[in-house]
Amino acid sequence: MTTLPKPRQPELKTALPGPKTAAIMERDARHLSTSYMRPYPFVPDHGEGVWLTDVDGNTMLDFFAGIAVSTTGHAHPHVVKAVQEQITRFTHVCLTDYPQEITTSLAERMVRHIEKPGEKWRVFFGNSGAEAVEAAVKLARNHTRRSHIISTIGSFHGRTYGAITLTGSKTKYKRGFGPLLPNVSHVPYPNPFRPPLGATADTCAQAVIDHIEGLFQTVLPADEVAAIIVEPMQGEGGYIVPPADFLPKLRALCDAHGILLIFDEVQAGMGRTGKMYSFQHFNVQPDIVTVAKGIASGMPISAMLAKESVMTWPVGSHGSTYGGNPVAAAAAHATLDLLEGVVKHPGCGASLMANARDVGAYILSELRTMQTEFPCLGDVRGEGLFIGLEFVTPDGRPDGKLRDEASLAMFERGLLNLDCGEAVIRISPPLILTREDAATGLEIMRETLRALR
Ligand SMILES: Cc1ncc(COP(=O)(O)O)c(C=O)c1O
């Protein structure tokens, strides 16, 4: 009889934090920016696949992938090789001034996932999500010669001045930083679990559209609005999937008023939801798309993609010294190889996108079963490996305190996780997560919730 190998488990060799971790945490607290958050004491030393080992030799299962970034896991050999090869050729010349084949082919490859018949798209490369968002807003204003931007409550678009103005998730990002960008309004996001505007899960999409139309009649002339920016699935706001009719209705509203539609795919994009872009679950086409995080397995690069008919800003009007860095572009190519299935990852089926669908569906169904045992799990939602777990009080209010306790207790059992929204734990692991490793993480969650009861 053959016995199957036992799935790998976290290995905790010291009490947490271990001595080296504690020492670095202390130096970190003394010398680094006071703005950095430290949800629990973890200092990475090295990683392999979905496993990260801290400086004390404790190995943990990664269920958050550096905030939905490490798409191919840690130190994926295909990505490492691509980076090594490029770095020995050249690391920088400056894409703003000279073309480089590696970014030309990356742009060609990225637009192939977006272009519909008869459409042409172009790409601007930056270094971070916020930069892609800034570029999107600048382009929208420049193209339409209108100034107003509409964003959503609960959204996160980054921390530079334009992006932070658009962000609508937490006031701490804005307090004391004003004045922010003028001419930005926020409207509710249709969260089916907590519908805004007195609506229900079924009616909240239309309620938000009516609300915007109401603004156009009273306080905000529609012909002064350049763009509406929205996360097709909201990330930092709580891993929220909107009702199926929301984005098509928003598209129709934009078309009726000559407004551009920007989809911020920085967190949900690049295969995480099981499709290349999360908006592709909704049969709707935007005018501008921003991507970053998952694009290059942790190498810093972002992109703002726009229809050719919209990307009309003149030569020299926008650029970036490092944007589209060739080493990061090589990592993006390697990441796309694995996402598309041009290169297969062992145990992950046809492609990492297919794996995200398969393992994501498995995790969602297991979590829904867990909900019956643990009523504190008020909502389980998501698509692919973009999954949110909302903690609630017995009377259904968001329970941020319990969420924080659960997050820490999971970490102490060797499961790296991260909060978002008011009371949500996000599950955003590398897309190479297997069902076996997912089961290990789910068992840790179960044990944690039993212990907290
Ligand atoms: C949807 C979205 N947009 C933009 C950003 C900003 O990205 P960055 O931190 O790389 O600037 C984030 C970061 O979390 C995000 O989730």
Key structural traits:
single chain; 453 residues; alpha/beta; Aspartate Aminotransferase, domain 1; Aspartate Aminotransferase, domain 2; 2 domains; four-stranded mixed β-sheet; 12 helices; globular; binds pyridoxal-5'-phosphate; aminotransferase; 4-aminobutyrate aminotransferase; Aminotrans_3; pyridoxal phosphate binding; EC 2.6.1.19
Task: Give a written overview of the molecule.
By secondary structure, the protein is of the alpha/beta class. It contains twelve helices and 15 strands. The protein has helices spanning 19-31, 65-68, 77-87, 101-112, 129-144, 161-166, 204-218, 246-257, 326-340, 352-373, 400-412, 435-452, and strands at residues 44-48, 51-54, 59-62, 121-126, 148-152, 184-187, 225-230, 260-264, 288-291, 302-307, 377-383, 386-391, 415-416, 418-420, 424-427. The strands form three sheets. A seven-stranded mixed sheet has the order 4-10-9-8-7-5-6, sandwiched between helices. α7 packs parallel to α8, α10 packs parallel to α12 and α11 crosses α12. The chain starts with 18 loop residues before the first helix and ends with a helix. The mean pLDDT is 97. The structure holds pyridoxal-5'-phosphate. Pyridoxal-5'-phosphate binds at residues 67, 128-130, 133, 156-158, 231, 235-236, 264, 266-267, 292. Its EC number is 2.6.1.19. It is an enzyme of class 2 (transferase).
